[in-house]
Amino acid sequence: MKLAVFDFDSTLMQGETLEFIAREYKIEPLMKQITTDAMEGKIDFFESLIKRVALLKGAKEEKIKQICENLPYTKGAKETITELKKAGYKVVCFSGGYETATIPAQKILGYDAQFSNIFHFKNGELTGLVGGEMMFSDSKGKMLKRLQTILNIKPEDTLAAGDGANDLSMFQYAGKKAAFCAKPVLKKNANIIIDNKDLTEILNYI
């Protein structure tokens, strides 16, 4: 058995979930700046996560669900996951984003499991609070290590793919470190670099 772990926002999906929601509430530029700073490693991921979700306090739960169920997936995402599974990989999504998006995506893209964060809703509105499994800059690396231990999979049999600074912690546990249309901070630590927005190019390295 082998393991492939993919980031969600800007890797399996074209863009950032929070920015699609922010567009609906006319605050996309502010949201985008915080996201960019976090993905480039200029500010702490946890700090950026808290700031971004707080901006959406009062957003309607049904509207957020509707947006998250209609996100644009990256070219080749479904095909890549299908081929990896045929090649004996367990495919998992690690997202600093939200299960409101990653659970519907699992049904469409076909990955085996997802670990992500969770919006806190009350009375049908977002409270501006968030919790979950992927809230810190090192969360993905820690979770990857746990999965390898549970499944008895070695780093040399592990592929990790992402685009931003919060994906960096996965690379120390992965033999194949894929930077997909990534920020410079991730590219310089990768041994697979893909600048074309087609995930099937990863299959050339399998």
What does this structure look like?
This protein has 206 residues and is an alpha/beta fold. The chain has a single domain (2-205), classed as HAD superfamily/HAD-like (Rossmann fold, 3-Layer(aba) Sandwich). Helix content is 39%, strand content 23%. The protein contains nine helices and seven strands. It has helices at residues 17-24, 28-39, 45-54, 61-68, 77-86, 99-109, 139-151, 168-171, 184-187, and strands at residues 2-7, 89-98, 113-122, 125-132, 158-162, 176-180, 192-194. A seven-stranded mixed sheet has the order 4-3-2-1-5-6-7, sandwiched between helices. α1 runs antiparallel to α2.
Distance, first to last CA: 14 Å
Total number of strands:
7
What's the helical proportion of residues?
25-40%
CATH architecture: 3-Layer(aba) Sandwich
Structural class: alpha/beta
Overall, the morphology is globular
Point out poorly predicted stretches.
none
Sheet of most strands: 7 strands, mixed
Q: Briefly note the CATH topology name.
A: Rossmann fold
Q: State the helix count.
A: 9
- At the first level of CATH, what is the class? Alpha Beta
- Spell out the CATH superfamily: HAD superfamily/HAD-like
- The run of helices and strands is EHHHHHEHEEHEHEHE
Q: Which percent band covers the strand fraction?
A: 15-25%
Mean pLDDT: 95
Taking strands numbered 1, 2, ... along the chain, how are they ordered across the largest sheet?
A: 4-3-2-1-5-6-7
Count of structural domains: 1
Q: Please, what is the oligomeric state?
A: single chain
Rg = 16 Å
